[in-house]
């Protein structure tokens, strides 16, 4: 009997740390299919939309309220989803690492989706140039959301390099040559680069949601 009590006590002691760790996990709330229609979101405990999460373990309370939709979270080390054609209230415990994460409704992924960055995401790096002749370039063109470093070599005294798009509006001087480095944050959408003095010197690129 004493040995059995000791064994039960040992097992209980081993279980306590995992229960405490689970209770201490940051809690997120995922919702899909509300009275407003085609709505999907992932919010933190304060109600703010999630745009970045530190690497670690999280509990996600998932509320799938519509038969026509589901909630699908995908990214490095994570691929969890609720069923389409059913509703579900569930909690996932997931480990977020370094990288880009996307959540979506699989039936309507073009309009019902969002994303966030996990852990440390290194910036993409591109080189931009304008001049010395009538030329402008950006290589490689960024395609993923998140931090980006753009090294601009402005070799013209008649043109400049002007980058604009969602959350970004940076440019060099028209009558000065310079080499500058811009650290920007890109989000899904269309960005353009151009010379403010020569209309034909222009280009664009599209930042897309993570695959």
Separation of termini? 58 Å
Number of strands: 17
The secondary-structure element order is HEEEEEEEEEEEEEEEEE
List the domain count as a whole number.
2
If classified by CATH, what would the architecture of the largest domain be? Sandwich
Instruction: Please identify the structural class as seen in this structure.
Output: mainly beta
Q: Would you state the CATH class of the largest domain? A: Mainly Beta
Which sequence of strands runs across the widest sheet? 3-9-8-5-6
Number of helical segments with 4 or more residues:
1
For the sheet with most strands, the description reads: 5 strands, mixed
Radius of gyration: 24 Å
- Per DSSP, what share of the residues sits in E-state strands of 2 or more residues? over 45%
CATH H-level superfamily title of the largest domain: Cupredoxins -  blue copper proteins
How would you portray this structure in words?
This protein is mainly beta and 211 residues long. It folds into 2 domains: 2-118, Cupredoxins -  blue copper proteins (Immunoglobulin-like, Sandwich), CATH 2.60.40.420; 124-207, Cupredoxins -  blue copper proteins (Immunoglobulin-like). It has 1 helix and 17 strands. The strands form 4 sheets. Strands 3-9-8-5-6 form a 5-stranded mixed beta sheet, with no helix packed on it. A 4-stranded mixed beta sheet has the order 2-1-4-7, with no helix packed on it. Strands 11-10-12-15 form a 4-stranded mixed beta sheet, with no helix packed on it. Strand 5 (72-75) and strand 6 (78-81) form a beta hairpin. 25% of the residues are buried.
